[in-house]
Design goal:
Elements: H1 2-25, H2 28-35, H3 41-47, H4 50-72, H5 75-78, H6 84-95, H7 102-119
Helix pairs in contact: 1-4, 1-6, 2-3, 6-7
């Protein structure tokens, strides 16, 4: 059970990373840089955005935590758990007012069913 909590922690870190990256890429300064002709300024503006930096940092921490999971479980068992991130992301997206269709919910439920099948194999 302990390793499952570590896996879930890694997945939650990745989900949080996605939302911070989205926040950074939705910021006024990044949108302005994206609207201008492509120059070396664009990567600088994106990579210096505090939310993008935080998102990449959370991804890095999540990857290090995931190494513990890989040390204990077969990849074929561990990696399908990453699918749970889809469910958490959709739930958070819904709470934030994103348009989540019934078809998207069905797809996520199918992913969760697959994760359950793999976890019980």
């Amino acid at each position: 059970m302990h390793i499952l909590l570590i896996a879930v922690s890694s997945i939650l870190l990745s989900v949080a990373a996605q939302f911070f990256l989205k926040l950074g890429m939705s910021s006024a300064e990044v949108k302005q840089a994206l609207a201008e002709p492509m120059t070396w300024r664009l990567p600088w503006v994106v990579l210096m955005n505090k939310f993008v930096v935080l998102g990449f940092g959370l991804y890095g921490i999540g990857a290090v935590v995931w190494l513990k999971v890989l040390s204990a479980w077969d990849v074929s068992k561990a990696y399908p758990l990453v699918g749970l991130g889809f469910a958490v992301t959709v739930l958070i997206g819904m709470l934030m007012g994103e348009n989540v269709t019934g078809l998207r919910v069905l797809g996520v439920l199918l992913i969760c069913e697959g994760v359950w099948l793999v976890a019980n194999s």
